[in-house]
């Protein structure tokens, strides 16, 4: 043992002694707080059913009396529930627990100052109705300590979806590109752009409405907005008019699919009008969410002189979901599940815009 280690050992002994003496001299309140300290010593997961819904039950046990906690739902965008346990140490519970149950992806446990944070990353957005937290006293017979019980339910069948409070009461105009006499681009197996844009637009409308937004659609059926076989300008101006005639309109979203002469062109991109800062922010958030959810090549956030972006009076973005002229992407675009994913991504982008 060299000198440095010998010194370190002596310093350690002195520190322990000082801590012991301080402990003896602590005022009563501080002593009580010390007695209330917890150490995690138990982590169990199980599958359960709650009101007919599949659920994941996580029990986290600790030494000491009844556990106390606060909850932060790290906004549904990050899909994370964070429990903060005051006067608690991580003890011998692992700091990272990966999960593959379809309801949670991982649990991370870390000490922050005097507390321990338990961050559970969910597989679905955190909504008020898909988790419950309770506590259980110690059960000596079962050798179980006092526990916090976190139950995470699968999303309810009625599709309840909440995009957070910011979206509530906002007027959002959703424009399904093309329609009626104008089919838009057509894919190799005949999928029409106007059909995809309307379907996705309706899904977006649905999710936004559930989140308390006021949604105005430029069209809800397979029709021209101005008139059949009108000029491009007439048709596009009619869509801008829907947005501009209501001064409450906070955002304008136009949904399209891309097309190119070569079937190999692929990917997603979002547009805004050059010089519009809010438009840029909106297009960027949409791009981030669509990239994450759709998994396509990200062609980026771009500016363009598109008519509907230039002639609307509020922040606006036009999204090109994918290339309908690309065989693989055409197949994705006509899939209901994929459309649902994209619609949810768009609504997440809109929710972030209002955060
Ligand atoms: Zn188009």
Quick recap of the structure?
The chain is an alpha/beta fold.
What percent strand? Answer: 25-35%
Mean pLDDT: 88
List ligands, each type once: zinc ion
Ranges with pLDDT <50 over ≥5 residues?
21-33
How far the N terminus sits from the C terminus, by CA atoms, comes to 59 Å
Radius of gyration: 27 Å
Tell me the quaternary state: single chain
Give the helix tally.
Answer: 9
Count every beta strand, where a strand is a DSSP E run of 2 or more residues: 16
GO biological process, one term: peptidoglycan catabolic process
GO molecular function: N-acetylmuramoyl-L-alanine amidase activity
Signal peptide: 1-32
GO cellular component, one term: outer membrane-bounded periplasmic space
Question: What can you see in these coordinates?
Answer:
It comes from Selenomonas ruminantium subsp. lactilytica (strain NBRC 103574 / TAM6421). This is Putative N-acetylmuramoyl-L-alanine amidase. The protein has 355 residues and is of the alpha/beta class. The chain has two domains: 116 residues, Sandwich (Immunoglobulin-like); 184 residues, 3-Layer(aba) Sandwich (Aminopeptidase). The protein contains nine helices and 16 strands. The strands form three sheets. The protein has a six-stranded mixed sheet, with helices on both faces. A five-stranded mixed sheet has the order 5-1-2-10-9, with no helix packed on it. The longest helix has 23 residues. The protein is elongated, with a radius of gyration of 27 Å. The site of zinc ion (ZN) has 5 residues, from loops. Zinc ion (ZN) binds next to loops.
């Amino acid at each position: 043992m060299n000198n440095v280690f010998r010194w370190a050992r002596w310093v350690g002994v002195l520190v322990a002694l000082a801590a012991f003496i301080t402990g003896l001299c602590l005022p009563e309140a501080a002593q009580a707080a010390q007695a209330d300290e917890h150490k995690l010593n138990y982590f169990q997961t199980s599958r359960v059913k709650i009101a007919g819904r599949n659920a994941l039950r996580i029990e986290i046990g600790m030494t000491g009396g009844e556990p106390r906690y606060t909850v932060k739902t790290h906004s549904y965008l990050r899909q994370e529930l964070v429990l903060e346990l005051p006067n608690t140490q991580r003890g011998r519970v692992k700091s990272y627990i990966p999960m593959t149950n379809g309801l949670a992806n991982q649990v991370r446990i870390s000490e922050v100052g005097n507390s321990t944070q338990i961050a559970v990353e969910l597989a679905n957005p955190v909504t008020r109705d898909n988790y419950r937290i309770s506590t259980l006293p110690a059960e000596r017979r079962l050798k179980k300590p006092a526990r916090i019980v976190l139950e995470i339910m699968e999303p309810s069948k009625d599709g309840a979806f909440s995009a957070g409070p910011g979206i509530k009461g906002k007027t959002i105009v959703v424009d399904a590109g093309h329609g009626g006499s104008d089919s838009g681009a057509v894919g190799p197996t005949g999928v029409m752009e106007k059909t995809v844009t309307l379907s996705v637009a309706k899904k977006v409308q649905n999710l936004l409405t559930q989140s308390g937004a006021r949604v105005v659609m430029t069209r809800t059926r397979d029709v021209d907005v101005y008139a059949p076989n009108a000029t491009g300008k007439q048709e596009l101006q009619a869509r801008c008019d829907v947005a501009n005639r209501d001064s409450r309109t906070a955002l304008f979203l136009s949904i399209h699919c891309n097309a190119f002469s070569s079937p190999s062109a692929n990917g997603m991109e979002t547009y805004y009008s050059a010089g519009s800062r809010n438009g840029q922010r909106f297009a960027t958030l949409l791009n981030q969410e669509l990239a994450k959810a759709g998994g396509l090549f990200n062609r980026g956030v771009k500016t363009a002189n598109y008519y509907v972006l230039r002639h609307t009076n509020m922040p606006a973005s036009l999204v090109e979901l994918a290339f309908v002229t690309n065989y693989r992407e055409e197949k994705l675009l006509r899939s209901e599940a994929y459309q649902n994913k994209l619609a949810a991504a768009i609504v997440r982008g809109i929710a972030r815009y209002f955060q």
